[in-house]
From TrEMBL:
Residues 1-106 form the Thioredoxin domain. NCBIfam families: thioredoxin. Disulfide bonds join 30-33. The record marks 31-32 as: Contributes to redox potential value. Signal peptide: none annotated. SUPFAM superfamilies: Thioredoxin-like. Keywords: Disulfide bond, Electron transport, Oxidoreductase, Redox-active center, Transport. GO terms for cellular component: cytosol. This is Thioredoxin. InterPro entries: Thioredoxin, Thioredoxin-like_sf, Thioredoxin_CS, Thioredoxin_domain. One of its GO terms (molecular function) is protein-disulfide reductase activity. GO terms for biological process: cell redox homeostasis. It comes from Brevibacterium mcbrellneri ATCC 49030.
């Protein structure tokens, strides 16, 4: 299951992580976010040794969401070494998402 992060924990949990981190920027009212959420949780379990997976509620954490210019959700960002390494906007089926993440989980 993906771990929840907040404005307060984002730097420590994401930017300082040794592993690449997939951040699911989402909000409770977002239908596509609810569709992709369980897929993100599955990837979190299956790839735990290669990829850290976290979720950030954009409604509750405006500081981080605006710092990364999140205007469309779901937005999945991969951070590596504290930098954005990949951006995936919109919901995807699991095989497509795994393909997008192949360079980090392969």
């Amino acid at each position: 299951m993906a771990q929840e992060v907040t404005d307060a924990t984002f730097k420590e949990e994401v930017l300082s992580s040794d592993l690449p981190v997939l951040v699911d920027f989402w909000a409770p009212w977002c239908g596509p976010c609810r569709m992709v959420g369980p897929i993100v949780d599955e990837i979190a379990q299956e790839q735990a040794d290669k990829l850290k997976v976290v979720k950030l509620n954009t409604d509750d954490n405006l500081e981080t969401a605006s710092a990364y210019g999140i205007t469309s959700i779901p937005a999945l960002y991969v951070f590596k070494g504290g930098e954005v390494a990949k951006t995936i906007i919109g919901a995807r089926p699991k095989p497509a998402l795994e393909q997008e993440l192949a360079e980090f989980i392969g």
